[in-house]
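Q: I'm writing up a methods section and want to include an example of the input and output format. Could you take the sequence below and give the corresponding predicted structure tokens, formatted cleanly so I can copy it straight into the document?
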Amino acid sequence: MGLLDRVGMVIRSNLNALVSAAEDPEKILEQTIIDMNADLVKLRQAVAQAIAAQKRLEQQYAQNLKDAQQWEGRARLALSKGDEALALEALNRKKTAEDTAAALKAQVDQMTVQVKTLKDNLTALESKISEAKTKKEMLKARARAAKASEQIHQAVSKVGTSNAMAAFERMEDKVLQMEARSQAIAELSGDTLESKFQALQSSASRQDVEFELLEMKRQMGLLPDAPSAGTLPQTSGGSSQLNININVSTPEVQDAPRTSSSSQAKSIDDDMAELRRLLDS
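A: Here is the clean output for your methods example:
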């Protein structure tokens, strides 16, 4: 390969690369449809001209047939008048008209075939243009989708994936820390109030149990004699629990003399009333 051939190939390859890079599918498709529509207009004009020529040939053919018939009639008229020379001339004209009509008939047949071919080509081109328009829209949509996808991939490739994931992890840790701090503040703010309510509930529950035990002892007659008037039951360690010494296992008769049953019942009721007062305080 000579130097000029190599230079020419390099130039052609560079030009082809530039043209390929500059080709926009949407623009190329639009221009192709425009060119096809221009061809369709030209083909329609050619079909119209062919049909017009066919009509003229058919008219000339019909006129020559009519002329041949007229010259035949004139020849008969001349013979009826005894003028053979005029009849012969009329027959010559008839022959010329018939020959012309025959030639025109061949042209009409040929033009009919040509017009039919042009009409078929016109129909095929119209169908191709319609199909091309449909395909053009589909290809344009695919080209736009491909461009959008390419832009998205380029944008994603520019963003550091590791950096983005690290940022997300940092933000997630920060959110977790904020949630933990919020929960801790909520627990600390509600600790005093909650402990107070728990203490109240525990105290009320303990007093209920003590009252139930005392009531049960009263029903069983296990309570000791009532203390002297104006004396409160002794408590130990600041607690509201009564210090009552009762020998439950040996309910024997005490050595001290017992009071009457009515005095004992009244003393028990007084003790219960005092116990309730202490529990309520």
